[in-house]
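User: Okay, second chain of the day. Same drill as before: sequence in, C-alpha cells out.
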Amino acid sequence: MVVGVGGQGVLFLSEVLGGAALTDDLNVRVAEIHGMAQRGGSVTCHVRIGSNVHSPTILEGSADLIVGFEPLEVLRSLKYANRETLIILNKIAIVPTSAYLGVKYPAEDRILKEISRVSEKIMVIDAMYIATKTGNPATQNSAILGFISALKGIPVKPETLKKAIADRSPKKYLDVNLRAFELGREKN
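Assistant: Same drill. C-alpha cells below.
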C-alpha cells in the first residue's frame, strides 16, 4: 500500500512499481483511491503483486508493506497493517489546513509510538534530504522507490524499476529521478 497526499508522487511510485512488476512477468493489480483529488488531499494506492492476485484492493489487516509519504497518512492506513507489516515512513510532515484552525500536528515520536502498536517493523526515511541532494525536491518518490528496491523480498528487480522510472519520467527530470533512486538504494 502506498499512502500520502496529493502532489507527493504517490501515483507515480505506484505506477512505476506496477509497471515494473508487469515487465518482470509478475501478476499485479493497482487501485488508486483519492480523497481530495488535488494537492494536499489524501491519496492511497493499493498495489498487489503475487502469483494469484485477483482483486486490486488489499484487505484490512493484510498489507505486507505500507509505504508512507506522509506520517499522518500512515496512521490513517494502519487498519491495513498487522504485526508483520513493514512500514516505510517518510519523516517529512505536510501539515494539513486544519492545523491552521487550531488542530495540532502530532510529534514524530508520538506518531511512531502509535504505529508501533500495530507493527514494530518501521523504517524511517528522510526522502526530502535525499531529494535535495539531487537538486530537485520533487524526486522524493524516486528516492523512496530506490529505498524500497533494496529491501529483501521485494519481487521487482531494481533494474526493472529504473527502466519503469525512465519510461514514466519527463525527459528533463529523468537524470535527477534516477539519481534519487540510486541515493535511496544507498540509504537502505
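The chain has a mean pLDDT of 92.

User: Thanks, on to the next one.
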